[in-house]
Amino acid sequence: MGKVKELIDEWRNARSLKWWKHQSHAAKTMGLSELYDLHAKVRKLRNRVNIINHIAISRLTLPVIGSKAIKKPQGTEWAHRPEAWAGPVSPSGMSSVASKSKLGQEVTLFHDCTSNEMTLRQVRNNREQDLAPFATQLDVFNFDGSFLSLAIEMPPEAIEGLKKEHIIRLTLIIDSERPQEMFARLNLRHRPNTEQIVRELDLSTRELYVEFDLFYTNFKEARAQSLWFDLIFESPSMNQITIRDVSVIRRRRANI
């Protein structure tokens, strides 16, 4: 039965293609009323084809959506790639981005810029070396504010069993149109306080990582509540910054 249906579908597709081929030739001489009706059919068909094309490109482009491939150094106990880099999110993009705007559920943009001349969107990675299916792209034009940061929330699993003897590594792959000064800040809330550790990012290389050693903090293990990162951009005017990948791993520090 399946084979018969497949043959019927192929026959219908062949007839449809033949009909559209005939219409493409006839469009040059047909009456305006008839051409108007044909054009309406073309618009409906084009919308459906564009939807299928978008889905196909998204699913067939490497890396595969849902890929959990993360580089894990020896001793890794937990690893995570935030949703905006792992799969499609909604909304997937926005312009004139207001402060506290969210890209999906885990990424939030903060700024004090009054002109709002920036866009934030999720884009598809498609290079062979990319492990993350998606990237986030920030376009900044005139920026008259004093701060711009991207907050990335970690899931509850990030603090399950978290100890002061843990080291948290944040790995990033970043492309920017012009040199960009950036910092990464780890925020670890443990009631009623929040520990913060800041690291400058060395953007002389595309792929980089920074480590946060909890041993030197006042972190109270029994009070762990939440963990998130801030990516802080200094003087971001007239720049396009594409964060190709974000991944986080947790390991225990070596005993000395």
Account of the 3D structure:
The protein is of the alpha+beta class. It is built from three helices and 13 strands; from the N terminus they run ααβαββββββββββββ. The model has no long low-confidence stretch (mean pLDDT 88). The chain has two domains: 59 residues, no CATH class; 177 residues, Jelly Rolls (Sandwich).
Q: What percent strand? A: 35-45%
User: Topology as H/E string?
Assistant: HHEHEEEEEEEEEEEE
Number of domains: 2
Point out poorly predicted stretches.
Answer: none
Q: How would you state the average pLDDT, rounded?
A: 88
Rg from C-alpha positions? 25 Å
Summarize the structure.
Helices cover 23% and strands 38% of the residues. With 256 residues, it is of the alpha+beta class.
Features:
256 residues; Jelly Rolls; 2 domains; 6-stranded antiparallel sheet; 13 strands; 23% helix; elongated
Question: What is the secondary structure topology, with strand pairs?
Answer:
Layout (H helix, E strand, L loop, with lengths): L1 H25 L5 H29 L15 E5 L2 H4 L6 E3 L5 E3 L3 E5 L6 E7 L9 E7 L7 E6 L12 E11 L4 E10 L2 E8 L6 E7 L10 E11 L4 E14 L4
Antiparallel strand pairs: 1-13, 2-5, 3-4, 4-7, 5-6, 6-13, 7-12, 8-11, 8-13, 9-10, 9-12
